[in-house]
Amino acid sequence: MSLTKAEAMGLKHSEWIDKTLRYYWYLIFIAIVAEIFALTVTLIMSPSEFWDDVLPVLVYPTVAQVILLLITTVIYKKKITENEYILMVVGSLLAFILIAANTSLAGAPLILLLPMMISILFFNKNVVIFSYLVNVIAYLVTIALFPDLGEYLRIYEFIAYIYIFSAGFIILLAVQERSDEVIELLRKKVDQEQELMVRNTIMERLSKVDAPTGLYNHKTFQEYLAYLFEQSSTSSYRFQLAMLDIDNFKQVNDTYGHAVGDKILERIAGIIQANVDANDIASRYGGEEFGVLFTDCSFETALHVVETIRLEIERLPHEEMGGRNVTVSIGLVEYTDEEQAPVLFEKADTLLYLAKKNGKNRIETEIQ
Hints:
Helix 2 (13-45) packs parallel to helix 4 (84-101) and helix 4 packs parallel to helix 6 (125-145). This protein has two domains: 5-191, no CATH class; 218-365, Alpha-Beta Plaits (2-Layer Sandwich). The two termini are 74 Å apart. By secondary structure, it is an alpha+beta fold. The chain has a five-stranded mixed sheet, sandwiched between helices. It contains 13 helices and five strands. Helices cover 68% and strands 8% of the residues. The longest helix has 54 residues, at 155-208. Residues 237-368 form the GGDEF domain. GO terms for molecular function: diguanylate cyclase activity. This is Diguanylate cyclase. Pfam families: GGDEF.
């Protein structure tokens, strides 16, 4: 299973095209160095042959390769195409030029193995097959066009080259198949990790959230309260704590049933969640009681928010109760250097029950 075009694009496809072009430039440079070295040896050993070889062996093929690669580089840099098959053809043409310039060199056709090897960089079996076919055709063309090359090849050597190309092709296919296995293994590994991450996220959320209301649960609320208390006790950071309790909720359950009570809890939780800030912690503390930690606002702002919540709850009719509404009583305090978190919570709870005592559907604070 080879990579699709879209998947290949995702593996920095353009970047690898640029790298392949750069590799081609490296090969041209190496070929120039090799030709210069060979010509230097020729100059020492047979000076008369040196000048006959400079143009056909060094200058002409180098110019042809540079022009071809410059045109190809411009095409890809301008994003005219990002087709890797064209790149394989260019690699075969570069090799063909070198072979044409060195027909008397034993083993020159083996240069065609280089673009075949580069084809594996794109993780696509079709590209490997295409490169193999193009290079076999290039080899056959060189035999047909350059009789000098054919003179050095007996039928057994011709078959041997075809065998070498085919053997290289089979090895590249094996490498591609192995790459496919690795890719598939990585895919499964990523899928498993993502599935585990999602499961852990869900489990973590379930452990923190009260299912009926979608707010944080009692345990999580206490953890956040302890954390905020710790932070505030070592700095000038301030926060507010509000405790809300539904008035006469037992009567609602007894009269209309627990199913109706659950719907009312859910609606009130929705009102609370809609009014608090993203930095605030809203929770169902237990039964019909809710808690809110305001972490990034003034006491006046917190008071305004809980008053808005109280009014919206009071004005919300419930069809299950014949259009009647429910109310909440609220106690609101601000952290003021209390030594322990339970002390602050006890203050809020005391104010909550004071609101109940003073007529319900109201807010009580330490600031009058």
